[in-house]
Design a protein that fits this description.
Two copies of one chain form a homodimer. The first copy, chain A, is of the alpha/beta class. The first copy, chain A, contains 20 helices and 18 strands.
Chain lengths: 536, 536
């Protein structure tokens, strides 16, 4: 028998000695998640998740954030974890609900970052029937997950949840997916599980440090390719000291999940996007020291162009694999080199005011740079519009920049959403291309719902501009009458002011520099969600 | 070497004797699809699909329809195939692009219906690198596909495409996914392949017909549970003759992919949604003859309720499996029974005019029924709002009704889009719940882009109303302060007029019967996309 909620509602504190069956699986799961440090759940529940939703009323400590599409939930979990340093949960509805969240889980996997997915499934007794929503949930989960488990029943839910969180928090961060059958959630369960130990980054061997030190002492050109912890805080400081002492270049991947930038921060060069320019950029480098990343490869392959972007004569050398302690490794390397002098830092110098007149991509970034508040978070999915003007923010106010790690567009607005939940005291600036923004525009509703302090700037160029460029690489001089409509978004025009207002976000359209100047001034001077459609 | 488009552009007719390498893989693929009867492609391409897009300019016969989210593309392919009786292609961008389309492919799989997915992948030489968009594309595809293949290179693309279409068109319809590496698309390819034979429905054995005839002659209560071809045209006529001659009940699944309804059509009862009412509905039935479907099971399981909905004493009997020829089987059965008298048909009787005043769910359906044009297509994803009032359309003008087959919400507006592409001369009425409409609202843009004759009616109840009901089934009297926000969409309110206008669709909001009456009159009196937000 299922006990009524009244029977168990008072007894459900995690620390008490409970009678057996005093809580159901969903309650046991929620207590376990909270005890394991998971405090936020980005949710899009359905019928099979109703026990979980019901348990939210009886278990303290979990903030549930409703998302109107699952891709928003998974992208928000990614953004949350990048900024909070610990995972959020998602709550997803069976195979198809998970399916809608897979693209942003792909991105999260490529960060890599910690996410705990709770995926409802039919009751165990119901799974053998071909009901409409029956699917192979585990098969969906395996496409993007490092760790997948299906709770065999309510007795193991708490233990499984603790293991899921441990898997997610294993350095450098993993996607853990726990499939929760509806009856495992509604039946009487065991006590909650305490948190399991977090499996942090592994130490880097002395040999790896000695190898890098030798390369740096050899007097030949060295570049560091940095990702993860190495791009902020003590790790970045240590890298900066090494660069100051040795002349080594500091470089980050073309798209980097999180980097501390702006005035007072150690400047890091960005690897170019196209294979030719990327190889030219690294030309002459004798050793490319890899810290938390791999040797660079092309985003895509092209006819007659190489996939590997390390130029001839450049030797990759791993200082720290992604699961290793990059911060400690860089500090040890700096010590080994006697690199004690402080790094050179980016000065504070606002971008010049753009000329009056029609907006350009560059003018947008200049004005964003001029208004960027101290300690802001920039979620950058501006694709072709923002990419060339990325250097403009290097001397703006110090900020964290979050980029699309896995190439699956539709991640920027959800990441901004999750980052804002993680850091309620910081302004989030979400730089968005209009094409990519359409994939997960439902994020705006959650921003309004939760009163998140996110200002979204839409670069409205009304095209899949990157693809207009790409078409040249497969031999087309230009798009013809059938191809062009696949790349152009002018018919009909997307009205981002109406789309935002339709989801409760205050919005304005601007088409000249004065208009954007005023709109940014207004948005940065207040709290809460805003959208600025910048016609470029 | 890749040949320039100029070299090969003139020579690319499918019927000519071409020199080897006269076309690339993408052109060979496109010619093959067109030759196999695939004339529409719902596309959301990326870089790896640029050769396909480029080929659209050099191969005639393929209509490419741009969708701004992949779930729109896959749902539209489903709707197109339900109405056109043949598959459309989708064009999707690598694993994550496919991922965004999986939920509606799940739905299409449950119809089941023919879909040909063309999924771009990295060039074969590039796949071993961990580029941002690298993923196991086949693993994503297998979750929803009956048939999956990866073209080994340009030489096999045409043959693979012909096999993909054959797999998709194998009765009763399958999901076929062809993974196309970028280099297989851009390199010189073989000639196009001619169409392969369509593997149509299998004949039903004489034994199966004799068994059903015996059950019908036994004098005990018999009900037919019908799906697929049996719910329209000659199949439904034959079922109606059998019912008239024997008193057997004609029933369809709770959610049926396509059914001919309205005045002059054979009336079919709809199986109730909840297990208790469904079992009560079938109580007393001695034999349940299955035509193109399975014995009914619950949409979800609930504590202490059965999954199987066939009541005790009711014996399921298969007349035609889904891959068998239900139309011929029903006609043979009618002949065997000597059921020559014409079936009784639904009369033409418009729903009564609702009372003046605030809109109710029922009033919406009454007015829709009053304005429904002859031969309209109704895409019904109205969930809790429309469900109880489904009988009101039984005596409205004759129409096809398309419902959510796989339970993954977010299919109604894409299905409406595809149906409108398939049937440009028929009005499509898309009945949408506001919660489910948010999953794939980007469909509205494609409706505007293609000037599709779709009128969308949003039941704006501003809640996941079905879940407010479902919560009771897991023991909660009501949603508390944490659970309620997971089910309520009032904060902020979704403004569907702005959302529609933001995507180029003319829209109006109504909150009383007179307003809806005027809005429907206007929408039905013109062609092109419209949206009516009905506050209920």
């Amino acid at each position: 028998m299922v006990r009524s909620p009244q029977d168990r509602s008072e007894a459900a504190g995690a620390g008490e000695i409970l009678p057996p069956g005093a809580m159901n699986g969903a309650e046991s799961l929620l207590h376990t998640l909270v005890a394991s440090g998971v405090e936020v759940c980005f949710a899009n529940p359905g019928t099979s998740e109703m026990s979980f939703v019901n348990a939210l009323d009886r278990v303290d400590g979990m903030r549930a954030v409703l998302c109107l599409f699952e891709g928003v939930a998974t992208g928000a979990a990614d953004g949350y974890a990048r900024m909070a340093g610990k995972p959020a949960a998602t709550l997803l509805h069976l195979g198809p609900g998970l399916a809608n969240g897979l693209a942003n889980l792909h991105n999260a996997r490529k960060v890599p970052i910690s996410v705990v997915n709770i995926i409802g499934n039919h009751a165990s007794t119901h799974q053998r029937f071909d009901a409409p929503l029956t699917s192979d949930v585990a098969a969906f989960a395996h496409t993007v997950s490092h760790w997948v488990a299906s709770s065999a029943g309510p007795r193991t839910v708490a233990a499984d949840a603790a293991r899921a969180v441990q898997a997610a928090r294993t350095a450098p961060g993993q996607i853990a997916s726990l499939i929760l059958a509806a009856d495992a959630a509604w039946l009487p369960a065991e006590r909650p599980s305490p948190a399991l130990p977090v499996i942090g980054p592994a130490p880097v061997s002395d040999l790896a440090i000695a190898q890098s030190a030798r390369a740096l002492r050899a007097g030949k050109p060295v570049a560091f390719l940095l990702r993860g912890e190495a791009l902020r805080g003590r790790g970045l400081q240590a890298a900066g000291r090494i660069a100051a002492a040795t002349g080594a270049r500091l470089v980050c991947d073309t798209f980097t999940p999180r980097i501390e930038r702006g005035a007072g921060r150690v400047p890091v060069e960005r690897l170019p996007y196209r294979p030719g320019p990327a190889i030219a950029f690294l030309q002459g480098t004798a050793t490319l020291i890899l810290v938390g990343t791999q040797a660079p490869v092309g985003f895509f392959a092209y006819p007659d162009q190489p996939s590997e972007l390390t130029p001839p004569g450049c030797e990759p050398l791993v200082l720290a694999h992604p699961h290793e302690d990059a911060t400690a490794a860089l500090e040890a390397l700096a010590d080994a080199l006697g690199a004690k002098a402080p790094p050179s830092l980016s000065p504070f110098r606002l971008p010049d005011m753009p000329a009056d007149g029609a907006l350009t991509d560059e003018a947008v970034m200049r004005l964003v740079g001029r208004y960027l508040p101290d300690n802001a978070i920039v979620s950058d999915e501006s694709i072709t519009a923002g990419f060339p003007h990325y250097p403009l923010l290097e001397t703006a106010a110090p900020h964290d920049c979050l980029q699309l790690a896995g190439g699956a567009i539709g991640d920027g607005m959800p990441v901004a959403t999750g980052a804002a939940v993680a850091c309620p005291d910081r302004k989030v600036v979400s730089l968005q291309a209009d094409g990519s923004a359409m994939y997960t525009l439902q994020a705006l509703w959650t921003q309004a719902r939760e009163r998140l302090d996110v200002t979204t700037v839409i670069y409205a160029n009304r095209a899949y501009k990157v693809l207009l460029d790409e078409l040249r690489f497969v031999g087309a001089d230009r798009a013809g009458s059938n191809a062009f409509p696949m790349l152009d978004l002018h018919d009909p025009v997307l009205d981002w002011v109406k789309l935002a207002e339709g989801m409760g976000v205050e919005a304005v359209r601007v088409d000249d520099t004065r208009g954007l100047d005023a709109a940014l001034k207004s948005a940065m001077g207040q709290r809460g969600p805003r959208l600025i459609e910048a016609l470029v």
